[in-house]
Amino acid sequence: MKFTRYLTEFIATDLKEKMVFLGGPRQVGKTTLAKLFIQQSKQYLNWDDLEDRTQIKSHRIDPELKVVVLDEIHKYTKWRMLVKGLYDKYSEKLAILVTGSARLDHFRKGGDSLAGRYHYYRLHPLSLPEADPKLRPETLQKLLQFGGFPEPFQKQSEAHYRRWRRERLSRVVYQDLRDLDTVKDLSKIELLIDSLPSKVGSVLSRKGLAEDLEVSPNTIAHWIEVLEAIYYCYRILPYGSPKIRAVKKSAKLYLWDWAELQSKGPRFENLVASHLLKYCHYLEDTQGYRMELRFIRDTDLREIDFVVLQEKKPIFAVECKTGESMISPHLHYFSARTAIPKFYQVHLGSKEFLDKKIHVLPFSRFCQIAGLV
């Protein structure tokens, strides 16, 4: 089972003009995608390989190679200066593709400016439209069960997924965290990672996590920022409107690998969140729009799972239900009090109908209507 990744054509076009930075979770397929643009092994240099590392540090990269992939180079403290120097010297001959399992924008603070020299893409796990353009229900069920990371999705084995997940989390904790941040107590980070799947979809309480792990709320905030930087989880913020008493300081947390969640409802909600975040990042990275994924929650605890904003304006809201009949009353409440033009309630069934301004429909049908990737 082979997939044509949704960013392939955009990266190919941009490499003709600038460097391309490609970020994303570990094992999401960055290296496989990057190797589509090279023909020989010496065009691929991995910082984790000692021989490649020596070559990178010595600046011995032949511009006649036309394209070079620098993988995990952000682990080199002077990587910005190195990449900037290579680009400034060889930009007319050498196309440079930089990949990393940590957010490359995290490493742009201070030091040499790379502004204007690159385009940045975020590669997401497989979504339903990418895994199956026919949007078949059986593919959606497989995505729910095994997640969107290519290897476990292709294997479709519970035993393989459990082993893959354990190995991936081990690398995240003991490799990516150490490369990114001086975290002294990795055992407590592991405990935090163990506890986060149960927090998905709920308003995140840093105080509660801090009490459980016996650390300060500020430490929890820092650790979550680090886990976001290595693409383990992400947070979304609330959306406010003048006619609702919206909460302002809360955040909801989701995982890049939704298959970690045990309960069907939160797992489906996380899958939808990931599809919407992918849609937002796709429009940002390829079209330049400013996109945001948020949620609605007021002080009376009425809530809608997601709102997508484009250039600070809401374009649609989405509520997730595993069942297909009962409409959330919060949709009608907020539809009368906000400027959001479209409201959807998505589910895992087959029914589709309209109730005033609320469009109830299967998630696969929503993917088609909303133009998800």
Structural account:
The chain has 373 residues and is an alpha/beta fold. The chain has 2 domains: 8-122, Rossmann fold, CATH 3.40.50.300; 128-370, no CATH class. The protein has 14 helices and 13 strands. Strand 2, helix 3 and strand 3 form a beta-alpha-beta unit. Helix 10 crosses helix 11 (217-229).
The averaged pLDDT comes out at 92
Over all CA atoms, what is the radius of gyration?
A: 21 Å
Main β-sheet, spatial strand arrangement: 7-6-8-9-10-11-13-12
Q: Distance N terminus to C terminus?
A: 18 Å
Low-pLDDT runs of 5+ residues are none
- Report the order of strands and helices: HEHEHEHEEHHHHHHHEEHEEEHEEEH
DSSP strand count: 13
How many strands, what sense, and barrel or not for the largest sheet?
8 strands, mixed
Globally, the shape reads globular
Structural category is alpha/beta
Oligomer: single chain
Strand content: 15-25%
How many domains in all? Answer: 2
Number of helices: 14
Helix content: 25-40%
What attributes does this structure have?
globular, alpha/beta, 14 helices, 373 residues, 2 domains, eight-stranded mixed β-sheet
